[in-house]
Amino acid sequence: MGQVPAATRTLRVLRFLATQPHPVPLDRVAQVCGLPRSTAYHLLHAMIEEGFVVHLAEEHRYGLGVAAFEVGSGYSRQEPLQRIARRPLATLVDTVGHSAHLAVLHGRDVLYVVEERAPGRPPLVTDVGVRLPAHLAASGRALLAGLPRHQVRALYPDAGAFVDRHGTGPRTPGQLRTLLGETRRRGYAVEDGEITPGFASVAAAVHDHNAHPVAGVALTYPLDGPLAGPAGPSGLRPDEFAHAVRTTAATITARIAGVAPGNGPEMG
Questions:
Q1: What does pTM read for this prediction?
Q2: Tell me: the pLDDT tens digits for 21-72?
Q3: 8 Å CB contact between 245 and 178
Q4: Is 252 helix (H, G, I), strand (E, B) or coil?
Q5: Chain-centroid distance, C-alpha 46
Q6: HSE of 80, CA atoms in CB hemisphere, 13 A
Q7: Which of 64, 81, 111 is the last residue before a domain boundary?
Q8: Which CATH number belongs to the domain containing residue 189 in this structure?
Q9: Minimal CA–CA distance to 87: which of 67, 61, 114?
Q10: Is the four-CA dihedral 243, 249, 252, 257 of positive or negative sign?
């Protein structure tokens, strides 16, 4: 163990929790991390106070908290992800003819880190650096749908966690669970006028090498008017946008993981 035993033990516990698909009991943490049960208990509760661990009391289990995901998304916000994503996003915009963006999860918000605006299309609220409620944005819904359910419960414990933007969208944990379940079954996320009236978006998640969702690729298009006609050089229509967005997300995922496009994880 290094010269800072407590820090080393804490990082060991966090690394173990990050590899688990579900929350785990205290005894499992202590056993795998090679810690006395009392030491594991005190470390976990110190991390609960800082938001890095969440305790599911009714299940007697521990999982990663919101702060741990904020640290992970902090990596996603760094320039490497932007460099990796910019060219695939530009290709998506050239193909479809509508503006696209890349967003990462930060608490209950999505933070937009890349925007590719299509020529002749109006500016959107999804400019770089803007934050929007994750449960309303398509990119946020794509990311939330890929998180473990206990992490979503930690982010949205009650109705007070929900922001009402235009009087639409989920307003309770139950409504959000239903929406995210539909998103997982569909394989991509949608929103219809919930961010900007008259505009809709479709989004898919980008994953890291551990199949964890680290960013959302979204395409935004008008619901009616002259700009809602044939989408661009490909002639794609709105009901075909999802395939283009999922392909772009898979391309970025492949670049992150260093594998051939098409072999990355998909929501399903």
A1: 0.66
A2: 789 999 999 999 999 999 999 999 999 988 889 998 888 999 988 777 777 6
A3: no
A4: helix
A5: 26
A6: 10
A7: 64
A8: 3.30.450.40
A9: 114
A10: negative
